[in-house]
Every structure is written in C-alpha cells, then in structure tokens.
C-alpha cells in the first residue's frame, strides 16, 4: 500500500518583481513515500530552494496544494504549520545554522526544547544521534570548536531529533571540501538505512545525487526523473 508522506499537487508559484510577474513553477507535482531517498538537482536559479521552502511550509504556493500526511499546508494557520514542521519535518542547510553559544548536544536537543518536552530520554536520544553521525566525542564542544564537517554532522543529528517523517536538506555538502563532503554523504546514506524516514536532498552536486535511488531534475519549472 502506498504511504505518501509529502506531496505537491499542481503547484504554481509566482513572485511579483517590480511590474513583472515571475512564474517559478506551473503545475508541478511530486509524491514522496515513507523511507524514500530522493535527490533534486538543478541549475542555480531553477527554483530548488523555492521548492524546498514550499515543501516545508515556509512559503505557500500561488495555486495548488502541498500536503504533509494528507493535510494541506495552505489550510493551516501559521501556528499549526509551525507545529507540523516541528513534528514531521527536519532540516539541514548548507550553512549549518547551529547556535554558537550552545554545545553540540544542546544544539541537537533544540527541537525537543521547542516542542517543550526535553527529558532524560531526549538527552539519551540526542547522544545516540551524535554517535550515529560519528561525533559523540564532541558532544560538549561548541560550534566554534568543531570542523566544518563536524558542524554539519551535528546539524544532521539535530534534524533527526524529533524523529521526523521527512528530512529536507538544502545543499548539505555545498560548504565542504571534497573529502569532507564524501564523508558527510556516507553519513547521510547510512542514516537513510536505519532512521526509517524520507530524505530529500536538494543539490547542484551531481556526485552527491548519483548514489541516491531516486533522482529528479528541476528544469523549466518541472521535475523529471533521470
């Protein structure tokens, strides 16, 4: 039985730029099922980040629907959308966006704190996640004491903290050198095998996308398999 966790239906997205209307998407559709690992590649300016923002409910379509677990983000209040994001979605950005005044462990725990439920079990799980991404020994270090690869591993652990159904990654290796990028890629592939959640990786890096089982290209406002 199909288990769709995130879906776009005939999404159109337009922006007003001065007197001109710019249409980024026109009838874009996609379905993501539980446990899938999907890459979305595209040239700079093709709309990759816009699509990610729509999937996350950080931006809303001009027309069409974006559904998380069958619920339309457009029908929700902003408060409800925020709650859905925190409960069902995890995020990893190119620039890790860790909080510099907190330790790696505290950064991983942040989604639980936002959900107002930090507990001993949460702390144990955060340490487990840091161990899974290979930086448990750095749990009490602040971001300024970590390498770029270590910071990105902490960001990946943070994205998994609330056991999300979908993890959205925006150029997760784009700020790393080739060797560190390859190491982080191995971490991501390994987590997909054990974390039981869907991964969506938006990237311009063909080498990052290549090993993924489902590959999509964003071109002229549409997604195509390749």
Automatic annotation (TrEMBL):
Gene3D superfamilies (UniProt xref): P-loop containing nucleotide triphosphate hydrolases (3.40.50.300)
SMART domains: AAA
Keyword Lyase among UniProt keywords: no
Membrane-spanning segments: none
InterPro entries in the record: AAA+_ATPase, ABC_transporter-like_ATP-bd, ABC_transporter-like_CS, ABC_transpr_LolD-like, MacB-like_ATP-bd, P-loop_NTPase
Ranges of residues in domain ABC transporter: 6-226
Keywords, comma-separated and alphabetical: ATP-binding, Nucleotide-binding, Transport
Keyword check for Ribosomal protein: no
A GO term, aspect molecular function: ATP binding
PANTHER family tied to this protein: IMPORT ATP-BINDING PROTEIN (PTHR24220), LIPOPROTEIN-RELEASING SYSTEM ATP-BINDING PROTEIN LOLD (PTHR24220:SF689)
Protein name per UniProt: ABC transporter ATP-binding protein
UniProt source species: Saccharospirillum mangrovi
